[in-house]
Structures are given as structure tokens and as C-alpha cells.
Q: What sequence folds into this?
């Protein structure tokens, strides 16, 4: 299905270029150049935050913050056994996402899913906990949107950090609404 969607985008772009008399080759090269410039501008900020998070992980700060989330996670994930290392992985994933480091959160998320698979009776179907974790991970609360702030800095924003309160509010609402919809759909499908 995705192939058809991207194929449609590609064909639409070609048709649009003929209608507007746009040089496709020139636009593709310009877009590639802009992408490389953007990547090289963002890499230092991401490396800085990954370094800080690595220090936090080695010092045990990340584990302490993740353990603070454990009582809440036990309510959200009642199917997971109380002593499972899964809670630590989920908590670390959430903390990384809160700091805007989605790429650093991915390994913790994969480990959490691998642990959840051990409790899953149907190995070819996602369990309730896996689905809830996917919702929580996708609509995660973000406190420090590092990538967005670095993009705003790159493009000359006067106050790149001014979006932080709005990001916190919208990401919190999306997370809460996502979890509510997850629970409602679970109750509807279970019946």
C-alpha cells in the first residue's frame, strides 16, 4: 500500500512539474543539497544530547527516573509481571522520548517489546501491552523537543525554545487521548 502512495506522490509531482513548467532535475538536486545541509546542522545538537543521556545512563540517573515511572507503568500495563525488566526498558524509552531523543529511545523500545513477547500467548499477534506501549511510544510526552529547537535555530528563529510549553501541552494531551482510545478499543474488541 505504501508503494502505491509513494508512486502516486511521484506521478503527481511529475504532472505538477509539467503544469507549472518546473525543472525536476534542478529541484531534486536543490532538495538533496538542502537535506545534507540540514543533517549536518542537526548532528551536533543530537550528539550533544546523546552524550548527556549516555552520561545520565552510566551515572544511574536515567534508571532512577525510569523507576519513578514504574508505579504508573504498572497501572498502564497490568498484564506485565511486577518484577519484569520490561518496566525498566519502558521507563527508559519514555524518558528518552520526553527529552526529544526518539532515536536513542528506539533500542529501549525494542528491548521492551522483546520482553513483552515472552508473556505473549499468541506469538504472531501483538498483545494488549504491546499495543498500549506502541500508543504510548508514538504519542509520547515531550518536555525538551531537541530536534525541533535545533531546526528553529537553524532557520533563524528569534526564540527557538518558546515552543516548549506548547509542545508539553499538546504531547501530554495526545498521550492521554491515545491511552483513553486504546482502553476504549480494547474494551470494545474484547466483548
A:
Amino acid at each position: 500500500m505504501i508503494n502505491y502512495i509513494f508512486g502516486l506522490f511521484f506521478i503527481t509531482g511529475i504532472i505538477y512539474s509539467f503544469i507549472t513548467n518546473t525543472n525536476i532535475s534542478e529541484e531534486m538536486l536543490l532538495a538533496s543539497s538542502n537535506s545534507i545541509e540540514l543533517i549536518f546542522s542537526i548532528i551536533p545538537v543530537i550528539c550533544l544530547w546523546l552524550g548527556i543521556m549516555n552520561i545520565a545512563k552510566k551515572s544511574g540517573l536515567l534508571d532512577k527516573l525510569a523507576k519513578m515511572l514504574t508505579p504508573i507503568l504498572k497501572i498502564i500495563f497490568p498484564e506485565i509481571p511486577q518484577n519484569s525488566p520490561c518496566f525498566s526498558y519502558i521507563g527508559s524509552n519514555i524518558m528518552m522520548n520526553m527529552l526529544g531523543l526518539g532515536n536513542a529511545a528506539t533500542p529501549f523500545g525494542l528491548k521492551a517489546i522483546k520482553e513483552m513477547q515472552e508473556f505473549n500467548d499468541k506469538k504472531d499477534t501483538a498483545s494488549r501491552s504491546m499495543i498500549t506501549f506502541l500508543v504510548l511510544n508514538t504519542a509520547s510526552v515531550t518536555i525538551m523537543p531537541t530536534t525541533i529547537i535545533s531546526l528553529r535555530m537553524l532557520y533563524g528563529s528569534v526564540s527557538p525554545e518558546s515552543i516548549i510549553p506548547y509542545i508539553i501541552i499538546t504531547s501530554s494531551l495526545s498521550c492521554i487521548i491515545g491511552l483513553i482510545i486504546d482502553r476504549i478499543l480494547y474494551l470494545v474488541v474484547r466483548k
